[in-house]
Amino acid sequence: MPDDRRPSPGTLSVWAGESGRLDTNATQVPVVHSVSFGYDNLDEWLRVARGEAPGHNYGRNSNPTVAAFEEKVRELEDAEAATSAATGMGIISSALYAILSPGDRVVSIKDSYGGTNRLFTEFLPRFGIEVALCDTTDHEAIEREVSAGCQVLYLESPTNPTLKVVDVARLAEAGHAAGAVVMVDNTFATPINQKPLELGADLVLHSATKFLGGHADALGGVACGGSALIERVFHYREIHGASLHPMAAYLLLRGMKTLHLRIGRQNETALRVARFLESHPAVASVHYPGLESFEGHEIARRQMRGFGGVLSFELQESSLEAVGRVLERLCWARLAANLGSVETVAGPPATTSHCECTPAERAAMGIPEGLIRYSVGVEDAEDLVADLERALGGVGG
Does the annotation count 60 as an active-site position? Predict the structure, then answer.
């Protein structure tokens, strides 16, 4: 670094992981497709293989392109270390299985991302791991469950798709008092808007597929935290085998160079869209932390620098049929199971975040069938508002 001053997130988005001289003097991180890495002598090879010297041995364990991506996210999250996986769920499951053992206990929230919820309700219990799921905004209930004992406190803020916000600092303190590892899914906020490690979390997780990559063309997941904890997650992932592909790492690196620009634009646009929807007669409720009327607004103001590019809204006519009529009238939105991209993406939880769940399971999590998740892109805000106004004309107020 040129001086002792820490660079801004915008500068780190561009330069982190790429500031030294790159192979062949390239100005962009090369995509290294090699499965293995050769050495001139056995002594050097052994030192690299044992982790005693920098370098790479086998692609399932590590790769230069992947390492550059991990370093970029590590610096943005201001963490000691980072490791990656092939998908967001790959890193979430790696983190949980790396830490937990039969007989352990997890405390989490009811309306976490659908894939994460499936780990809690279907897979972890099969291995003798107890899971307690609490109402997301009931901090007292979460603290009671944590104080009863747990090895992991798993949080998501804002949540997908209802944008609920939890007080990370408050709950991290409770988790540490119980001796738990505190994990936070930071996918919706990104390190531009929120730093869970600064708030007391031990491990921060991202589906890099979403806002970090930003172009809906690469799958990936990444975890950041203390070196010892990340080493445990890395070891599980390298043996489990869900390695991030170097081409995906390259695409994620390229996308992250505009992360601060995209997030700044999406913060502004999402708030503009949320305020429009809040006043529309066909809309029953809007879920967005930037709205003063939102339940978690004050917590979000304390722990977030921006409120993010995703919002959700429930129609007065709360049914999948009504959702379909609105979605099919949109011009400036992809109807797809993704978010965080440069183009606006919209859809109901039944086909996106919680497609693995039944309608009854979604209802138990507080996710109505008439909900639309709307992830703003970098289009002009006024065009998106006009598009929504036209589409909402297809349902009654």
Answer: yes
